[in-house]
Every structure is written in C-alpha cells, then in structure tokens.
Amino acid sequence: MTDLQKLTIGKALNLGLRRAMEEDPKVLIMGEDVGKLGGVFRITDGLQKDFGEQRVLDTPLAESGIIGTAVGLAVRGFRPVCEIQFEGFIFPGFDQISSQLAKLHYRTQGKVKMPVVIRVPFGGGIGAVEHHSESPESLFSHIAGLKVVSISNAVDAYWGIQEAIRSDDPILFFEPKKLYHSGALKMEVDTSTAPSRVFASQVVREGTNATVVAYGPSVKVALDAATAAEAEGKSLEVIDLRTLSPLDLGPVFESVRKTGRLIAVSEAPSESSLTSEIAARVQQECFYSLESPVLRVTGFDTPYPPAKLEEHYLPDLDRVLHAVDRSLAW
Amino acid sequence: MPSEQWTHPEPGDGPAAVAAQPSPEQVIAGLRATSEGGAELTQLLTPEGQRVPSERFDRYVEDVDDETLKNLYRDMVLVRRADREANAMQRQGQLGIWVPLLGQEAAQVGSGRALQPRDMAFPSYREHGVAYTRGVDMRELIGIFRCTDHSGWDYQAHRFHPYTIVIGNQVLNAAGYAMGQKFEGKVGDEGGEATICYFGDGATSQGDVHEGFVWAAVYDAPLVFFCQNNQWAISEPTERQSRLPLYQRARGYGFPGIRVDGNDVLACLAVTRWALEECRHGNGPVLIEAFTYRMDAHTTTDDPTRYRLSDELEEWKLKDPIERVRAFLARGGHADQAFFDSVQAEADKFAAELRDYTFNMPEPPPDRVFSQVYAEPSPVLEAQREEYLSYLDGFAAAGEH
Ligand SMILES: Cc1ncc(C[n+]2csc(CCOP(=O)(O)OP(=O)(O)O)c2C)c(N)n1
C-alpha cells in the first residue's frame, strides 16, 4: 500500500529520523535542545517523547563534546545523529571532526567504522544576527575521510537522512534552513516504499542552452532562474549536486558536453570553495566542449553581512540570469 | 550542602549502601535550590526588601547611601523599560530578534556599576544592562538586533567589547586581555585594572570556558568570571550542564568561587567590587555565579512553554530584582511616590527615544557588504565590489530599482 504524504523539508526530516530510529535501536539523536524543545527548528519534534531520553539526548552545551562523544559512541557500535544548532556554531567541534571523526577509519585501516551523521542547518535569507546564516560546507569538503551532502527538497530529505544514517562513513548533512518550513515547497513523499538512494548528482530540470549547477538552498534559486529564462526563450539545465564531497561530477560533465556552458551557484564565498573545485574539474574534463568560461554566482569574499544586506550578498535569480547572459554572450 | 549528598563514598565506607548517585530530585534540588540558591548564597537585600547585614561584604557597599541606591533602582527600571520596548518592537517587526534580559537587571547593573572606567568588560549577547552601565547608549546596540550592524559602539571608548554570540568564545578573549593587563604591570594596588567577563550557565560546558579558567588561573590574570545562572540554556536546565553548583567549580582551577543572589543589586555590587579588588591587587581570577532567572523567553524566537512550568516563573516573580529595592526604599521612607513616578516617566521617555530612533534607522548601503573586511585593501575584493556595484547600476539605469 502506498502512503503518500505532502511534506515540508522539515517534516520529511522528522519522519526520516523517526523511521531510522524505529528500524535500528542503535540510532541515537544528540544535540542542544533536541529533546523537550524538539530542536530550535523543531526537526526532532516528538522524538524524545516516543524514544526516551537515552535515545534522544539533550546534551550539555558544547559542540566539541557532542561530536567527540559521538565518535566514542560510534566506536561502541551506536549510530549517533548529532544536531548542530546553526552552522556558525560547528567550529568548537571542528577539531573533533577533522582530527578524529574523519580520520579514524583510515588510521585504523578500516577496523573502526564511523557511522556518525552531523546535521547542520546552513545558509542565509532568514534575517538573523551573526553566525546564523553562513555556508561553511567547503571547509568540510576539504577534509578527506568525511562525506559532505546537502538536500534541497522533501523527498531527498526523507530518504537522504536515512541513507546517511545507514552509511558507515561519517557524514556532514547540510540542511537549507530557510526552506525547512516552506509550504510552497511541500512535496509528495511515498513513505511506504523501500529506501531509495539520494546521494548522487541529479538533473532536476532538462535544458539545452546552459547548465546551472547548485546545491542546498541555491537549487531553488537555480530552478526559479530556469523558469524565468524560459520566458525569455533560453533553456537551462539544472543539476542538484546533492553530494558535495566526494563530488559526483559525472552528470555535470555530461550536461556541459551537451550545453557547452556552466554556471555554478552557491551562497558560500567563492575563493577556495566548492564552486572553485567544480570550475577546475569541468575545465579539465570538458575543455573542448566549453563555449565560454565556467562562471560562478556566489556569496562575496566577505564575512556574512548584517542581515539587512543579505539580499545583496546572496545569489538570487537576477544574478544567476545575469551570469547566464554573460555566458551566452561569449 | 546538598552537593555532598552525592560525593562518592570514601574507601572503607562499606558497599554501595551509601547512595553515591543522587536521585534526579536531589540533583535538581541541589543545583537549583529554587527558592534560596542554597546556604552559601550571598544576599544583602531580601526579596521582601529587608537589609541583611554581612560581615564580609558590608564594607563594599558602605558608600551606598539613599541617593546611590535610588540611582541603582533607576538604572534597573530604565534598563527593563528599554528591554520591554525592544521586545515589543521585535513583535512589531521592527527588530529581527531580541534577547530579553527580564529578571537579570540586578546582576547586570550591580556588577556593571562595580566597574571602574579603566576596567574592561567582555559581554556575551544578553548584557544590555551592563552595556548601559558602561555608557553605551541603548541606541548603539539596537542595530545588532535590527540586523543593520554587527556591533555599534566604540569598544575602546566604553571599554565594552563587542557582543559575542558563539557561546563561550569571549571567555578566552577576556583571559587574554586580562593577561595583557598583568603583563603591562597594571595590577598590584588600588589603582590596578581588572577585566570582567560575562557568560551563562550553559556556557560553562564549553571547552573555551574551561580553558579560560585554566589560562586565567595559571597566569594570575585579573579576570572576574561573571556567570549569570539564569537556570536555562534555551530549553536545557542548569542540571543538564553540571552535577555541582557552578560556583564550586572554581576551586578545581585554584581560584575562589562565590554564589551571589543575582536578583539582589546590592549584593551583586558588593561581591563584584570584592572580586575586582582581588584582581586589582594581583590575586588572580574569581568566579561569581549570580543566581538569577530568565523571566522571559530565551529570545523572541523561543517558546518556553514547551519546556518550563509556569509555577517556576511565578515563584521567581516574587523575587523580582526591582521590586525588592522599591520595597526597601519605600518602607524605610528613603523615597516617596514622587520619586517612583519620576523614574517611571524618565523610563517611558527613554523607551520612546529608543523606539523613535529604531523606526527611523537608515538602511545600510550595499557598499557596506564590502567595507572593512581587511585592514589592508584587497584587490580581489575591490574587484568584486566594483563588479557588484556596477551590476546594481545596471538595474538603476534600466529603471528597475
Ligand atoms: C557555540 C554555540 N553553540 C550553540 C549556540 C546556540 N545558542 C545560543 S544561546 C544558547 C543557550 C545559552 O545558554 P546560557 O549559556 O545559559 O546563556 P543564556 O542565553 O541563558 O544567557 C544556545 C545553545 C551558540 N550561540 N553558540
């Protein structure tokens, strides 16, 4: 029997977490305020009530502690899912992530598995104060041994979180916080089927004139731009990366070979970032297919500005279209 | 001390007959001691407004005459009024968020007024009352919450560091600053300098705070750690951070810790003056735990009804920091109704000015995104800036913006 539910990204994550916890008693949720409050974004709402305080842990307020103990719990056979409240607060845990979480499997030549998921709400556009709107995913993509993924819609949220929890590798799971509760983005999710795989790049809209690659919150911007471009007679292909590290660029190469043009979109600053990596690899692999240089539409190389200015900082539909025009004009 | 109920038994005490583990009720009772804050709570003014003598601390408030106490009262009323106004403005969509201090006025005003102009303060993000005592105009900090700015005041002029949102970061920064005061020979006598650093009960779990304790201790830094234990870290109660009353932690690092009634402005003033004096004389750091209560939500985005019982709030209302000073002043005939009315009128005016200013704040120009990223100009960033501004000009030329 199919069980179709129309879900927001937030609710899909909640149900995905619930299903993973039901299926495996070793799955734990840990973080600040994840229990009684259900997390500051309510993603873990109701889970402590149903699974108890030993499976949904309101931890002391310390990110190094959350991630470091998750590493130990994983060594003991648990599958911790850590919540970091906002991306800007992950840095007290950076040492544990880069020194232990990412490297233990390699250091022990596979004897120690690290099935730890770290959920990180990220990105801007919510009008918040400092440290609540950043996009630090590139920093983590630079760390070998770690997988970095991001979701952009409810179907991927539901299946993606389960796939991440089932994985024996440590995963940083970036969630576009701005879109959590967007009613407009509700999607039908069939929760009755067998798990489906999420973490590979996916063409989310086909087109012929240029390719736009994005992830997380920028996928929506790219899709909106494609709709707007269509009205002007331009056909854009949009790819949702979904997996940021290791990067799955196969579908991007394929698309660029078809369209000859690439625009990479991300909210993160551009210098030494994921979009830099994409540009480098695409020019290496698709040099003879490119009709114009790979262009990037990103946040600026500045700290995240006061939120009254974020509309300038964040890539929006107009900036994407502007880049498309520049690419096509080459 | 309730905490002794769960110390592990000494060897030879016999098998686990002595309960080494506290019951959850004991933990809660011991840590929160909800009504009094425990036997070691320093208090000079009871919730009923009675002055309690203290052999140890009276001398630190000898100079507090009627006038001074009335000023402390006025400070707290103004600060609370501004806080309520900002809270209301957030509800009206004028501020992106507000971090209320309701209930913590005495801890902030008392400790802030203990400082000398030469001292330095490192706040977290709720210290609007301390900011006020440092001479920061409330209007200088409202931009942070209207999201037009990250920090609005001259930190050197006010000796009040920018707000720090990442929990615990500022504690190490303060330790470093205080080490600097020490290295420059600014401690040693009455005229010495000191630093105070503010953080919450939740913050005490962070590595940075622990490291701050270690650094300040081993370098004898003139640093007062001022922990406002307002009982909650968003939804998590203090007992989720510690098995021991927080002030007792100091001992493990080798400096004194003290618990003060954070709703008693006089006690906060006295205890902080004492702690600063220790620092000025080069005796190293002190931890103050101001035992208080957050009488509003954590921030305007929080919903405390999900985790906290309203009984608790009602109980703390009886210990309101402003009411007890008012009771003392009124009962002893130190102040009349005209005084209270005039303070209220002044507070209303203060709030109205804040509101006016906030409503009329200019939007920052797009250029501000790129300004002051580096001390030395960066050609790469300059190019980005120019490109973006000319892109915007394109819209202006097309008449779209
Ligand atoms: C490193 C870090 N982690 C998480 C947060 C999110 N956060 C903001 S305030 C807060 C609770 C802080 O509680 P406490 O230290 O007791 O101070 P209070 O707000 O109660 O004054 C949390 C978890 C943060 N700002 N920084």
Question: Mind sketching the topology for me?
Answer:
The complex is a heterodimer of chains A (330) and B (401).
Chain A: E1 4-7, H1 9-23, E2 27-31, H2 47-51, E3 56-58, H3 63-75, E4 79-83, H4 94-101, H5 104-107, E5 117-122, H6 137-141, E6 147-150, H7 154-166, E7 171-176, E8 187-190, E9 202-205, E10 210-214, H8 217-231, E11 236-240, E12 243-245, H9 250-259, E13 262-269, H10 274-285, E14 295-299, H11 310-313, H12 317-328
Parallel strand pairs in A: 2-3, 2-4, 4-5, 5-7, 6-7, 10-11, 10-13, 13-14
Antiparallel strand pairs in A: 1-8, 6-12, 9-11
Chain B: H1 24-32, H2 66-91, H3 105-114, E1 120-122, H4 128-133, H5 138-146, H6 155-158, H7 169-183, E2 195-200, H8 207-218, E3 223-229, E4 232-233, E5 236-237, H9 249-253, E6 257-261, H10 265-280, E7 286-291, H11 310-317, H12 321-331, H13 337-359, H14 379-397
Parallel strand pairs in B: 1-2, 2-3, 3-7, 6-7
Antiparallel strand pairs in B: 4-5
Helix pairs in contact in B: 2-3, 2-12, 2-13, 3-10, 7-8
The complex binds thiamine diphosphate.
Thiamine diphosphate sits between chains B (126, 165-167, 200-203, 228, 230, 232-234, 294, 298) and A (32, 61, 63, 85, 89, 92).
